[in-house]
Amino acid sequence: MRLRTFYRRTLAFYWRTNLAVALCVAAGTAVLTGALLVGDSMRGSLAEHALRRLGRIDHVLVAGRFFGQELASRLDDLMDARTSRTAVQPAILLTGGVTHADSRRGASRVAVFGVDSSFWRLDERRPGAPLAPGVEREAILNEPLARELGASPGDDVLVRIERASPVPAETLLGRRDDNSMTLRVTVSGVVHAAGLGGFSLSPSQYQPLNLFVPLETLQQALDQERRVNALFFADDGTGAERAGVGSDNPQRLLTTSLTLEDLGLRLRVQQDRGYLSLESERMLIEPPVEAAATAAAASLGAPVCPILTYLANSIAGGPSDPTGKPWTVIPYSTVTAVDLDAHRPMADVTMVDGTPAPALGPDEILLNDWAAAELGAAAGDRIRLTYYLSGPLGRLETEQTDFILRGVVGLAGTAADPGWTPEYRGMTDAVRVSDWNPPFPV
């Protein structure tokens, strides 16, 4: 029997079984094909939905701190010079809560945007400018938020947002109390959530809750005049950016456009003492910034002297008294840590007898002549520093550390340099201690 005949007769004899197998294969193929088609359709729908939320925005910069609004103009000019099709839009992007002023219905995790009228031109649907320039205390809600609150144009809503502070709230100089604020605004309109009204940086299928207020209104409320924390980079409507044609990488352009002020840094020129002081509005200079500053100074052949100045609640000490008489206490003094031996002549501190200050051991301290006289302390006496440390959840904890007084320095020259203390609004600009406005109890 030929092989062909064998196959034909076998198929004919087992036709019922073969038909069942064929139908099962066909059904499985149909299911798999349908699943693939549905999956491809869903991916396309989700991608289209996400892109529609972004409008013509291709890149977004959101910073953990505020920076000068002029950075957007500098980047815009730089991109124009390179014939880029990108426009840069400054904005403020925060998260807060919104409550209807009358019904008290509320919504949490609301994205609060501070934008100007040109922001709406980035919508691919080109709806115009719902927020007129310069209109204060008015807000635009997107449809999901309006439904959540039951709000309509003309209603007042209360917007709760965190106050902007360059110093983290969990640190000693961060302000924990009164760190939030409420802004009352009137709803002037409701926008559809399909376009920029549904703008979101989270790849979620859920419709975000968005509220838009004029940029200047939010800047004034936060006491951040002409400062923003976000930049939107958008194409000119030709689609060239999204296709990757003729565009510059914003991250690369930032390296040529950023200033010290944008980074929250400032240089203080100490003309009479012959040095520059690099300070941070966050009070502590972050390690990458310190490394970059040190490298820049080394390239110029300039010496660098790292300094850490802290506020002590009190300095106590003096000679031992067998009668148990309590020590004299000096309240609220600055304490500076510096490697005197490694950073001369910048840290050229002189003892009262005219000799250079010695290198200090781990448990040694120097006092200026005024503090030593107040305490009645001399070399070899025990000195106790009391100070705050930031504990869990930013809770202040009082700590004490004892030192041995190595010697007394004269309150002159480097030891009397006010540049060793960074500026802190509410304290260093106060005339008297009674005028202080610190973030901790005094």
State the main characteristics.
6-stranded mixed barrel; elongated; 442 residues; alpha+beta; 4 domains
Give a brief description.
The chain has 442 residues and is an alpha+beta fold. The protein has helices at 3-13, 15-54, 70-81, 143-149, 215-222, 240-243, 250-257, 287-299, 369-375, and strands at residues 57-68, 86-100, 106-115, 138-142, 156-162, 180-191, 210-214, 227-235, 265-270, 275-280, 308-318, 328-337, 364-368, 382-390, 396-409. The N and C termini lie far apart (108 Å).
Describe this structure as you would to a colleague:
By secondary structure, this protein is an alpha+beta fold. The protein folds into four domains: 1-52; 55-261, no CATH class; 264-302, no CATH class; 305-435, no CATH class. The chain has nine helices and 15 strands. Strand 9 (265-270) and strand 10 form a beta hairpin. Helix 3 (70-81) packs across helix 7 (250-257). It is elongated. The model is unreliable at 239-247 (pLDDT under 50).
